[in-house]
């Protein structure tokens, strides 16, 4: 992830503000909030300033995913170009869906909140949509998970834990 964050930071940073860089990184699948906070720490943006920007950037795509992804996937699967990719994405997301199926709200919250590779708000929203989890329940779980991920990634990216220990 660091390689992607560095690439986006260096490439975008030449053309737009540092704040806009972390906002865009936070919107990108795979990188999301954790990439945005990592980029913010590399760009020397204060944690207090970076957190709301990264949360907003990461949360903007979520309602669209929850509301429209099934219809978009259905439409894209009708095309030769995207059929294989969409099926692969669905299978990959559903392969990570066990804890969400079993625990629904708590599973979704933990899936989004614990920043591991392949987890996050994008994948959590996709799984919630594919499993037809209630949109209100999934939205709250994803938002709470995003807050949890923010705390964890702020500690990791800004070394807050290191500052507390020393």
From TrEMBL:
Q: Where are the transmembrane segments?
A: 21-44, 50-69, 105-128, 140-161
Pfam families in alphabetical order: Sm_multidrug_ex
The UniProt keywords, alphabetically, are: Membrane, Transmembrane, Transmembrane helix
What InterPro entries does UniProt report for this protein, alphabetically?
Sm_multidrug_ex
Q: Mind telling me what this protein is named?
A: Small multi-drug export protein
Question: Source organism lineage?
Answer: Bacteria, Bacillati, Bacillota, Clostridia, Lachnospirales
């Amino acid at each position: 992830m660091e390689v992607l964050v560095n690439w986006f930071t260096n490439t975008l940073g030449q053309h737009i503000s540092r704040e806009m860089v972390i906002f865009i990184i936070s919107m990108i699948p795979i990188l999301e909030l954790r990439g945005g906070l990592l980029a913010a720490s590399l760009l020397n943006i204060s944690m207090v300033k970076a957190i709301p920007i990264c949360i907003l950037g990461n949360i903007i795509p979520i309602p669209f995913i929850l509301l429209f992804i099934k219809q978009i996937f259905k439409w894209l699967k009708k095309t030769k170009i995207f059929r294989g990719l969409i099926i692969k994405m669905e299978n990959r997301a559903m392969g990570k869906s066990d804890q969400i199926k079993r625990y629904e709200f708590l599973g979704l919250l933990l899936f989004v909140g614990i920043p591991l590779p392949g987890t996050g708000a994008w994948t959590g929203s996709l799984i919630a949509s594919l499993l037809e989890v209630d949109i209100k329940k999934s939205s709250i779980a994803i938002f709470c998970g995003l807050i949890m991920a923010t705390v964890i990634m702020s500690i990791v990216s800004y070394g807050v834990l290191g500052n507390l220990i020393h």
